[in-house]
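Issue 218. Parser rejects a valid record. Input:
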Amino acid sequence: MSASSKLPPFDPADPLGIDDLLEPEDLAVRDTVRSWAADRVLPHIAEWYESGELPAVRELARELGSIGALGMSLTGYGCAGATAVQYGLACLELEAADSGIRSLVSVQGSLAMYAIWKFGSEEQKQRWLPGMAAGETIGCFGLTEPDHGSDPAGMRTYAKRDGSDWVLNGRKMWITNGSVAGVAVVWAQTDDGIRGFAVPTDAPGFSAPEIRHKWSLRASVTSELVMDEVRLPQDAVLPGVTGLKGPLSCLSHARYGIVWGAMGAARSSFEAALDYARTREQFGKPIGGFQLTQAKLADMALELHKGILLAHHLGRRMDAGTLRPEQVSFGKLNNVREAIEICRTARTILGANGISLEYPVMRHATNLESVLTYEGTVEMHQLVLGKALTGLDAFR
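Output the parser choked on:
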């Protein structure tokens, strides 16, 4: 660099210049989703969270479909065919608004739609995916059971053949979108191994009671799925996979979105703390002028932008077809854990105001407690990495 060259100014919102890694199309996707969230979610999210409801879920789904955010990394059937990095940027912006909104999109696109797109028949794809991409049909993903979360191989939901039909019985728990879904992708034991089924939610014997009394993900529809002698035709089974590799590959796709999304919640909390530190005065000056507060802000910025860099790196690997599941575990474990710590530190800067819904910090912190658990607990991702590092399986 010549002596006359001028360095770009330091940007507190992008201290590492990560935006320089993004293409114009990436920035356009990010800005579109950010603008939508600012207009349609942020003015209402505190009220939705406090009431424990997402009252406009179907309307929001259609709007998300109209901007191409549903199944956006899939191709065909009305899907946007976006890159993995673009999908990640969308997840970050959605979770900066609220984890519940990002969960709506993740379950729709990375779990329910992805399962049908990857393992479904052409007839199933034509039947379900266009409406799901448009947000006209909401999907859910039934894997977790009341007694089987981290060990899905032990699931008790069972599908048995009856002539040319299947009869499905069982229960699934903690299912995002369940009570508003038009189709449920349900995984069940069969005589031939674990299979996936595209279940119309108006099928006799299917019900999805909503789970209430949550202190996390309150602005999100969470349900139990109950299958009581649900009779399905042969063409309801997803023909492209048998065994746990089916649902686990869907989970890996969803976990990738969480790697980005958690940094959205962290960014929102960091920005709230930074703005507060610049304006809140104690002892005659803004608290951002005190060394301890600056140390907190510096450490928060460090972990936030390291996490975004990690997400970006994993996105490029996914786009190149070289992303391994263990690398997704690396990202999910690190970024969610650091995001929670950023939210907790932000809360200390805001003091008592940090627990108020006038600020986003406590809402993000409590939401992230759920994100820390779903799509693989901390312990499960530690064991995935431990096995990859040592070659020894410690799951049992």
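Fixed in the parser; the record now loads. The chain has a mean pLDDT of 96.
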